[in-house]
Amino acid sequence: MRRLVLQCPGWVAACLLLSGCNLIVFNPKGQVALDERDLIILSTALMLLVVVPVIIMTFVFAYRYRATNKQARYSPRWASSHKIEAVVWGIPFLIIVVLGWVTWETTHALDPYRPLDSDTPPLNVQVVATDWKWLFIYPDLGIATVNELSLPVHTPVSFTITSDAAMTSFFIPALGGQIYAMAGMQTKLHLIANETGEFRGIAANYNGPGFSDMHFKTLSTTPAEFDAWVAKVKRSPQQLDQNAYAELAKPTIAHPVTYFSSVQDRLFLNIVDKYEGMNKRTGAQHEQAAMPRVDRAARHPGLLAEEH
Q1: Measured between alpha carbons, how far is 114 from 99 in angstroms, rounded to an integer?
Q2: pLDDT tens per residue, range 18-37
Q3: Which of 41, 178, 249, 259 is positioned for an S-S bond with 171, CB 3.0–4.6 A?
Q4: Which bin fits 147, alpha (ψ -120 to 50), beta or left (φ > 0)?
Q5: Cα–Cα dist 29/35, whole Å
Q6: Domains of the chain, with CATH numbers?
Q7: Between β-strands 123-130 and 157-163, what pairing exists: parallel, antiparallel or unpaired?
Q8: Cα distance between residue 200 and residue 36, in whole Å
Q9: SS3 for 11-43, per residue?
């Protein structure tokens, strides 16, 4: 107890220092992040219903039944206690039931592949993770950017994500969601911003020496500001074709923000398809190239829709 009392000032000082941290996960700027924050708080509160009483009883029992307390009642011989059994098993069982129901509901409600409910049409963005930068392609607008993502506020954003390098994780903490980017595969994520501002996006999975600098700016703007941003990108002299992308994909660290006023058709799908058949017998890649479009679409869900 004396050692515990002496350690308390250190714990209090640590809590005061941590209180100044920017815990962006608990300061959400999007509906998905808000729902995830509420889920974290609810799950933590339910589990603390067991943790807190156990911690308190640990100190109470240690103090009450200490060796120097001659007044404590000592009863070593007893068979069982239905009251203790009811508490020990009943309360955790109820908590598990509630957590199971919450898990079932939120797993479906926060499914990253599920489109968000909104009267506003979604903005489509294709994301490519390379060493060590993020490429954002706006297929409906015909533009692309590196390490800068812009989206209008209160507008759902449908991300299609892949990687042209090591596996990593796409994460914008202020908007919620975190999903892996993997070579030869496409993952989906739907987000929305409730407020305007600039948010930090990161690679949340270690993928090499440039990992710590693999972050990007997320600009949540008004519709008018977004249109002005699109016009600025379209004035860029750089164009993103296959040759320009091959140069861009080379490993770089702390790559500057770059704009491309046009994007070669099917560039994103070509990046995904380049890994098709890499583990198959010799010649499988040539068979893939000659495969009818319908057959290839069956192997890549949503391919036909993106080609159209």
Answers
A1: 22
A2: 555 567 888 899 999 999 99
A3: 178
A4: left
A5: 11
A6: 35-67+82-110 (no CATH), 123-275 (2.60.40.420)
A7: parallel
A8: 18
A9: HHHHHHHHCCCCCHHHCCCCHHHHHHHHHHHHH
